[in-house]
Amino acid sequence: MRQGTNRIRRAIGAAVITFTIGGLGTNAAAFDGVVEKMVFELPSYTTVGGETIANVRIGWESYGTLNEARDNAILITHFFSGTSHAAGRYRDDDPKPGYWDRIIGSGQAIDTDRYYVLSTDTLVNLNANDPTVVTTGPATINPGTGRPYGLDFPVVLIRDFVNVQKALIDTLGIRRLHAVIGASMGALQAIDWAAAYPDRVARVVPVIGGAVVDAFLIGWLDRWAAPIRIDPNWNGGDYYGGPRPLAGLTEALKMVTLHARHWRWATRTFGRQWAVSGADPRDALDNRYAIEAWLDQAARARAELADANHFLYLVKANQTFIVGNHGDLDAGLATIDAPVLLLPALDDLVFYPEAHAEPLRERLSRLGVSVEFTAIAGDLGHVNGIAHIDRVEDRLAAFLARPGL
Amino acid sequence: MRQGTNRIRRAIGAAVITFTIGGLGTNAAAFDGVVEKMVFELPSYTTVGGETIANVRIGWESYGTLNEARDNAILITHFFSGTSHAAGRYRDDDPKPGYWDRIIGSGQAIDTDRYYVLSTDTLVNLNANDPTVVTTGPATINPGTGRPYGLDFPVVLIRDFVNVQKALIDTLGIRRLHAVIGASMGALQAIDWAAAYPDRVARVVPVIGGAVVDAFLIGWLDRWAAPIRIDPNWNGGDYYGGPRPLAGLTEALKMVTLHARHWRWATRTFGRQWAVSGADPRDALDNRYAIEAWLDQAARARAELADANHFLYLVKANQTFIVGNHGDLDAGLATIDAPVLLLPALDDLVFYPEAHAEPLRERLSRLGVSVEFTAIAGDLGHVNGIAHIDRVEDRLAAFLARPGL
């Protein structure tokens, strides 16, 4: 991680501006589709749990221009396997833009002609080996030992992700965010922002998320993580410099990928097709179906960029989430001042709307918090919130344009 | 497995009657709550795939008395992690009866005063190390080598389970089954019985199942199996005589357990309780929530009795399932003569009613097959079909009592 800046410079062939606390650089380029990765550094950060981490670094990106009043900033918070790359391209020939590119840009719902949009890599970001990601976590060199932290890295909470983002916002001189918007784990960060710093958030948009991770999802997150611990290369988290636990990590990513989708998508996309023509799955234990081979291929590519310990720390951050960190949901929600736009996905099998967004709407209403609700349709399950976010763009644009409190 | 008969005799302290093909023994005891395990043997069985297995043995049980016309037999087919133990107790002090004990017995929906109820262990039964289970699969000694088959055991299909059951039915002189009833993987066997041997089945009751395993479930079954393959003790399936892949198998069983339930159950049962009082999950990576500890404990006990390779073969049998084995659903269903009672569970997250029972009802109607449909309510998801089967007992009793075609 220490070489993050150099690695990014090499990878994206663009200038990298490094901010350090107390010294604010300038993001020269207005959003024109070519995105620069920047690095935000904190000499020291103390977690909610009271552990101090030296030299915290996270990557961030921005699209659009911060106005003079510094009151047009929208923060985008990312999902479990996501990064700060929410929109735009790193190079003109970049094959894929950021994950919400279709709603962030000039004239889009999150209009970069109007808003200054920024997005950060979280702590313990999954994609620690992605050269465009900057994060601090178990794979980072512990300055105290000169070796990666491994499991000596402290447990971090969603609130810790928020607090590091807040330090960046403070550094940028942004007094109040126009909105915080995030999908899935990003929704947890968004609503926690509104609960933790009510005077700093004017609007909040939790997409495919909730205000608390329930027992079923706690159990599933543990299932996601389990293959990593079974992989002998994981070695109790101490694998840096040796073979990586890629088999376990790949399996963990397959589980995330499948869990985030839906049977309608699977039937439409694969049906009962075989992985290899002529290799009937009935003929041999190793002959497989197309969906199995697809999951394998999709997860293998992602595993190369990911870190297994970071995965485990993200699982922990999600499992422990309850808005406000009180252990009492109403107490956490009651501090929210910002109007809330809930955007769940129909048929979401991770954050079931009936378990999360629907009771959350009722609770917020009862607590006197302004709340709106629109479900995103599609056959992708949880992933509707990423892939089909444009289906609610008018609603989102109207919510963002409405005068705040 | 070769010592199955002796092991059972030891375990249940009761006479064991071994049937061999061509020689029909007698099941002396009428159903009085103490169940005898019996063994059915086939000197040779040739799979649908054309492989011949010597000396196939499966366990079976019966409750009630076969009438003189031998036309009052109901076959119960078991689920993925189940056994032939559908009802009754092996000893008077047995703490737990068979899984459907509440609907099988004197005066119950499946009335043992009226019907002769029988139930078999499948081939490649998961619980190969359970002393009350008799099965033939990878853990069985291959008579050709004197060592367990391991992955040399041929792939077997749901139809192979059915065919071995049919050999038992033939041996018992039962010309036509009054009904075949099964839950989950048992539902696949039940409907395949009706499609494969339409003149041998008078009624069919698929509970929490379907007529085809869809792409999403194919993908999930592969997720269930994956931790076994990652466990280094699995050793490519060659672990007999060495350490067993218990970590992978335990994780596989945790996944089955969680997948078969529902978020309502999880919230009601565990909420966000910690596994250990005073050990806040936020304080350490290894501090856990109650649901995680419960899954661990439940699965560990089951893993002791299970065999990892048998798990993989069961996954294969389920993934490859399409009724009739034609690869064409309508062609498979069109051969069914028996009236069908579909009993899906509301909120089933394994066989989603909208993906399985509901379209199946429509297809059967369109094909002119008599079909009825009642959903089982409850907050247990898929497991509603086992734990809350008594909620549809009147409907089931009426269906069974109605004159056949």
Summarize the structure.
Two copies of one chain form a homodimer. Chain A is an alpha/beta fold.
The unreliable regions of chain A are: 1-31
Distance between the termini of chain A: 41 Å
Largest sheet of chain A: 7 strands, mixed
Helix content of chain A: 25-40%
Descriptive report:
The structure is a homodimer of 405-residue chains. Chain A has 405 residues and is α/β, with parallel strands linked by helices. Chain A folds into two domains: 4-212 and 322-401, Alpha/Beta hydrolase fold, catalytic domain (Rossmann fold, 3-Layer(aba) Sandwich); 218-315, Rna Polymerase Sigma Factor, Chain: A, CATH 1.10.1740.110. In chain A, 32% of the residues lie in helices and 14% in strands. Chain A contains twelve helices and 13 strands. Chain A has helices at 4-12, 158-171, 185-196, 215-230, 246-259, 263-269, 290-305, 308-319, 329-334, 357-366, 384-387, 393-401, and strands at residues 18-20, 38-46, 52-63, 73-77, 104-105, 110-111, 116-120, 141-142, 147-148, 179-183, 204-207, 340-342, 371-373. Chain A has a seven-stranded mixed sheet. Chain A is globular, with a radius of gyration of 21 Å. At the A-B interface, helix 4, helix 5, helix 6, helix 7 and helix 8 of A face helix 4, helix 5, helix 6, helix 7 and helix 8 of B.
Question: What is the element layout, followed by pairings?
Answer:
Two copies of one chain form a homodimer.
Chain A: H1 4-12, E1 18-20, E2 38-46, E3 52-63, E4 73-77, E5 104-105, E6 110-111, E7 116-120, E8 141-142, E9 147-148, H2 158-171, E10 179-183, H3 185-196, E11 204-207, H4 215-230, H5 246-259, H6 263-269, H7 290-305, H8 308-319, H9 329-334, E12 340-342, H10 357-366, E13 371-373, H11 384-387, H12 393-401
Parallel strand pairs in A: 1-2, 4-7, 4-10, 5-6, 10-11, 12-13
Antiparallel strand pairs in A: 2-3, 3-7, 8-9
